[in-house]
UniProtKB/TrEMBL annotation:
Keywords: Aminoacyl-tRNA synthetase, ATP-binding, Coiled coil, Ligase, Nucleotide-binding, Protein biosynthesis. Residues 251-484 form the Aminoacyl-transfer RNA synthetases class-II family profile domain. It comes from the Eukaryota. ATP binds at R325, T326, E327, V341, H342, Q343, F344, E412, L413, S414, S415. This is serine--tRNA ligase. One of its GO terms (biological process) is seryl-tRNA aminoacylation. Residues 136-163 form a coiled coil. GO terms for molecular function: ATP binding; serine-tRNA ligase activity. Its EC number is 6.1.1.11. It is an enzyme of class 6 (ligase). One of its GO terms (cellular component) is cytoplasm.
């Protein structure tokens, strides 16, 4: 299995449905919604396009949204019942009825602007040629009235569009039809729990006894949920990162190291909420910057405002970054030790592709994650996660949960998600389909309109979670921990953690 950087993946078979970033399933004879944000509806009014600077990652305007997404408002109106039901399934507070009401108002005010603009132009034409001074003065006064009226209407239109954008950006991606509603579905179980013949310890007790994890120093220096990895603990972190990178690169992923600080608007474009209550995001005071919670954000942002060639897709990247999360609301045994911390290292997989490639690529990401954790010798489950558990960008998500005997439960190691064009409509990442299909009979090839790419992401290695799983599953009766064989070359030959 590999992830080459060109379109060599199987296409979606005839009749298979595709899903857009608003989740509208296409196929089975149903006409596709407009993918171009300036496509005209039956009314002749453009579908409330974002400006050319819609995905500019600067400081957000004081009276508008942080950015303007290329959202298909006409499609929301035409599929309102489906969008309502999807918001309900995903426990979303979005109000699609309000969005449609705002869109209808936007269309009507746009028409009023057009009429006022036409009247002003007609009035200007009437002023050409000779006429009585009183008649010219009357036209000048009428022109000023029309200019004032047009300014008022355009101001109202801007206010409507800003509100419409803010409300529409709350609507989550539509959900894959096979996604369960409220409970995860077991897809596969790999391996079996180890049968220990001695009293087991959790990773906190093991880490402190072996002098490889220091929570006390972390708390003194930085606060709770911070830690130091020492000795073989530090080597284990680096080994996991290097091994995972090597595996990903061997599959065709391009290695990338990413910034840990990004603009808050880029975070929002990717579906995160830096200003929400109980946010997981650390913001920098008096700055538009935030600390990233995943390399997914800078990887996605690196392609914003770009038009890609379809021949270059899929683009598969493996990124390393330090992740920072507030873990607001997380407490108790579920977050014990390294399982839930404020800062950690992570290797992230990120893909840009065509809509025809994304469903198959999601399966390939899941298969790759399975290969990684099986090679480490872990026992884990693959789960198809329910709609109620999906973040706003994801159309479908699969989680890997490993057995952690010291914690006496399964714990999430990773997830893999298909976000379809939810993120690309916000980041303005497009591709131009091949023109071959548009050429016939030797005629000159036509330039096809651009479409939004699909994006996928997957965790290859969240270091603290894998450290927990390795320490607890491979502990020995004498208190040592055996290093999984694939990691030994990356540990400088160390095959066992023991205290000297």
């Amino acid at each position: 299995m590999s992830f080459p950087h060109k379109s060599c993946f199987r296409l979606v078979p005839a009749g298979r449905q595709l899903v857009t970033g608003l989740g509208f399933r296409l196929g089975h004879g149903r006409p596709a919604p407009h993918l171009c944000p300036r496509a005209l509806g039956a009314s002749g009014i453009a579908d409330a396009p974002a400006s050319s600077a819609g995905a500019t990652a600067g400081n957000p305007p004081a009276d508008g949204p942080a950015f303007k997404a290329y959202i298909d408002f006409k499609a929301i109106r035409e599929n309102l019942e489906e969008v309502r039901d999807n918001c309900r399934r995903r426990n979303s507070g979005a109000d699609p009825d309000l969005v449609v009401s705002l869109y209808n108002e936007f269309v009507e005010v746009s028409r009023e602007c057009d009429r006022a603009r036409a009247a002003r132009n007609e009035n200007s034409k009437s002023m050409k040629g000779q006429m009585e001074p009183s008649d010219r003065q009357a036209l000048i006064e009428k022109g000023q009235q029309l200019k004032d009226e047009l300014g008022r209407l355009e101001g109202r239109l801007t206010d409507i569009q800003n509100t419409m954008q803010r409300e529409a950006q709350k609507i989550p991606n539509l959900t894959h039809p096979q996604t369960p509603d409220t409970e995860p579905v077991l897809v596969k179980q790999v391996g079996e729990p180890r049968d220990f013949k001695f009293k087991i310890k959790d990773h906190v007790e093991l880490g402190e006894a072996l002098d490889i994890i220091d929570f006390d120093a972390g708390a003194q220096v930085s606060g709770s949920k911070f830690y130091y990895l020492r000795n073989e603990g530090a080597l284990l972190e680096l080994a996991l990162v290097h091994w995972t990178f090597a595996k990903a690169v061997s599959k065709g992923f391009v290695p990338v190291t990413t910034p840990d600080l990004v603009r808050s608007s880029v975070l929002e474009m990717c579906g995160f909420q830096p200003r929400a209550d109980n946010t997981q995001v650390y913001s920098i005071a008096d700055s538009p910057l935030c600390l990233t919670g995943t390399a997914e954000v800078p990887l996605a942002g690196s392609y914003m405002n770009r038009i890609l060639k379809s021949a270059d897709l899929p683009i598969c990247m493996v990124g390393f970054g330090r992740c920072f999360r507030t873990e607001a609301g997380a407490a108790g045994m579920a977050g014990k030790g390294l399982y839930r911390v404020h800062q950690f290292s992570k290797v992230e997989l990120f893909i840009l592709c065509t809509p025809q490639q994304s469903e198959d690529l999601l399966k390939r990401l899941v298969d790759f994650e399975e290969e990684l954790y099986a090679e480490l010798g872990l026992h884990f489950k693959i789960l198809d996660m329910p709609a109620s558990d999906l973040g706003a960008p994801a159309e479908r998500k699969f989680d890997m949960e490993a057995w952690m005997p010291g914690l006496q439960r399964y714990g999430e190691l990773s997830s893999a998600s298909n976000c379809t064009d939810y993120q690309s409509r916000r980041l303005n990442i497009r591709y131009r389909p091949d023109a071959d299909a548009a050429a016939s009979g030797g005629k000159k090839q036509k330039k096809l309109p651009t479409e939004f790419v699909h994006t996928l992401n997957a965790t290859a290695c969240a270091v603290p979670r894998l450290v927990v799983a390795i320490l607890e599953n491979f502990q020995q009766e004498d208190g040592t921990v055996v290093i999984p064989k694939p990691l030994i070359p990356y540990m400088g030959g160390v095959d066992r953690i023991m205290k000297f």
